[in-house]
Every structure is written in structure tokens, then in C-alpha cells.
Amino acid sequence: MLFNSIEFMIFFPAVFLLYWFFFHDKIKIRNTFILLVSYVFYGWWDWRFLILIVFSSFVDFNIGKRIFHENRKSHRKMYLIISLVANLGLLFYFKYADFFLESFCSAFSIFGKPVEYTRIKLILPVGISFYTFQTLSYTIDIYKRKIKPANSIIDFFAFVSFFPQLVAGPIERASHLLPQFTKRIYFNQYNVVKGFRLILWGMIKKVVIADRLATYVEPVYNNPGNHNSISLIIATVFFAIQIYCDFSGYSDIAIGTAKSLGFDLMTNFRTPYFAASIREFWQRWHISLSTWFRDYFYIPIGGNRVASFRQYLNLMATFLISGLWHGANWTFIIWGTIHGVWFCLEKSVSKGRHRNKLSLLSGTIVTFIVTCFAWIFFRADSVSKAFAIISGIVHFEVALPFWAKSRFWAYYIPGIIILIVVDSVIRFKGLDEFLRDKSVVTRWIIYFSGVLLIILSGVLNDSQFIYFQF
Predict the structure, then answer these.
(1) Which value, to the nearest 10 degrees, does the dihedral of the CA atoms of residues 424, 426, 429, 433 take?
(2) Catalytic residues
(3) Neighbours of 264 (CB within 10 A)
(4) 44 near 6, Cβ under 8 Å?
(5) Whether 174 contacts 141, CB under 8 Å
(6) 382 closest CA partner among 342, 327, 337
(7) CA-only gyration radius of the chain, Å
(8) pLDDT in tens, 46-85
(9) pTM for this predicted structure
């Protein structure tokens, strides 16, 4: 079920009213209700996907208890390995089997020995990369003695399948979200208003900005040879904004939905295009994933506690794995490599360097250019098409495409201006603080204008969120 669909517009108000009127008071009943509606939400795409999430939840619930009560180190490690194999095995099979099979056979063809193979062509279960990492962090944290296992199987299953963040995050840690399922929750008008405000802003980012920009990006990236360099540059910048609004819009709706039900999810984006370095970009972009890789991959392989050369290797390995997490395609691996290389370059030249306002401004511009360049590989269907787009940009042409017409400025630019204004407010003051200073009438005018903007300017076609494919 999509957040921007008619089904969700019926589903969520019904869940909200039933939750606060009948089910929020008693913890066990509340969590059972959350579990059931979460399975309805997830099973809306394909009920067969529920088998996987139930299996993953069941395995980690039981293994978590065994790890916690086991004192023998070898046995604890064995249980952890079982969890890793079960979860990553499913992820590998559904997401990467065809990719590695194709790459393996292509490698043999280099030596003049072509290998025939048949693609498995599996349907990728929606959200499998997200809930797999969420359940893995649970068992790993228990193994490290950072948390205790859940006592109730209902609480744990509800934690794994919590519908606001199930499909595309934020990737929550059990230490943060799971305890919230064991406490009583009381209706809080301020949190509900704040939640609805986030939902409204997330919907604006998705249907008014991201989906509208997609109408320009898709035809250009699908047929780059038919467009000149100006169009390719604009499409690349538009995609940078599109994917940000699409993904952060989802996160805002998820966080807002959870908050309206009394749950607190972690912040997943902090105006990343204001970042003055790639390091800062990753402190602001998809924070739940970047911190997951930091805590469960980068630090365990040595992090920055080793010699400089080894640190760079650790960084590159982390970004390569991060690229592969996003998809079974060499384009994502190259995307991760670009970020890793630039991160290492920044790290090697920035030690002890004083940063003034000019360097921060230039750093922000350079960082945006580098991320846009990397987005070319992220968005392109293949490596060859990505290089075709880069080639088209390099062979600069002055010819003006259709964007020179007034329709371009009326159709695409207003949404971008709204984004820049609101993100500037969020970056330098905070949206809550900004609205708190306004009168009730002014706030309601802003909310009503946002709703009108969605109705009149939104692309209301139930388009899928980009990160659902990961």
C-alpha cells in the first residue's frame, strides 16, 4: 500500500480512529492491533511477501533469546551466524542471485568460454533490505550485550513490521523502537499535530515536487541520445532533487504517521544538500542506513582505529557494500565507489584545515556537483547509458531545449523554490520553532495552502516511491 494512494487515505484514518478510541489503552491489545494492520498494509502488494517477514521475525525472536541466555562464546557465535545466514541468505537470494550469476558467467566469457545460464527472475519482496537490516541489528546488539531480548513475541513482531517505516525505513534499532512497544501511550495533541504536519510536508515533497520532476527526468534518462547537454544537466539536477524529495518525503510521512500514533522514529534526513562535504552529506542523508553501516560494518572491520591506509580501505569497503545494498547492478557499485573515493580524498586533505564562510560555500557547491555526478550512475539503467549521459554533458551544446519555454518555469520551478525556502527554514531555525512563532490563523492558512497545493499541483497517479525497489 502506497502512502500516496487512495487506499492509504482510507486505511490510515480508519487505523488512527480505531487505535485511539479502542486499542491504545492496553499494551497487548494495542500491539496486536498494530501487528495486524501492519500485515494488512504490507500484504496489500502481495500476501506471499508476508511469509518472508514472518519467517525472519520468528528466526530472530528465538535466536535472540538463545544468544542472550547462552554463556558459551562459541555457541553464542553459532547462533549469531545462523541469524546472519538466514537473513542475509534470503536477501541475497531474492535480490542478488541473478546479478552474481550473470557476473560470474560474464567473467568466464572473457576467456573465450561463454557459459549459458537462465535468469531466476525473482520478484523482489518490497522492503526486504530494510527489515532485514532492522532484525539483524537486534540479534547483533543482543550478541554484544547491548540490549535484552523481547519478552513478547507480539511486541517483537510488531516492532519488525511496524507499518509506517516497514517498507523504506527509517531502519530502526531495537534499543530505540522496541521499548516503545512495552510502554503505555497516551494521546498527545501536540504530537498528533506535529505528526500530521510532517505527513503534509512529506506528501508535498512527493507528489508536488518529486513526481512532477520525474516527468522531465524519465524521458531524458530513458533516451539520452535524443537530448542535448543542457537537458541532460537539468535532468541530472532535477533527479538529485527528485530522489531527495521522494525518499525524504517517504521518511517524513513515516515519522509523522508513527508520531500521530504515539511512537518516535529517528530522523532520517537533515537537509543534506546544505552539506559542505561528502562526510557531512552522509551525516544528513539516509541517516539510519549510514549509521547502520558505521556501527555494524565500518567499526567492526577496524574503522578509524587502524593505520591511515587501512582506514581508506575500510571506507571504500563500506561505500562499496552500501552501493551494493541499493541494488544488484554495477551502476550502484560505481555510485558507492564515487562517494567512497571522494570521501577518502576529503579525509586526506582536510586535516587541520580551517573552514571559513567562503570555504563552506565552495564546499557546498562542490559537494552538490559530486553528488549529482554520482546520481547519474544511480539513475541510469546501465553503466553504458550512464557514460552516454556523461558524454552528452561533456560535449556541451548551446542549443536551447523546450525548457526555455515559459511552461518549464511554471511547471517545475515553483516546487523547487518551495523546497529551498522550507529546507532553509528547517536548516537555520527549525520548522516547529518557525511555526510556533506564528498565530493559529497563520498556521492554519499555511496548512490549508499545503493541502490546496497537493490537490491543484500534485501529480496524483499513485507513483511508487523510488526506494521501494531497494
Answers:
(1) 140
(2) 326
(3) 12
(4) no
(5) yes
(6) 327
(7) 23
(8) 788 888 899 999 999 999 999 999 888 889 999 999 999 9
(9) 0.90
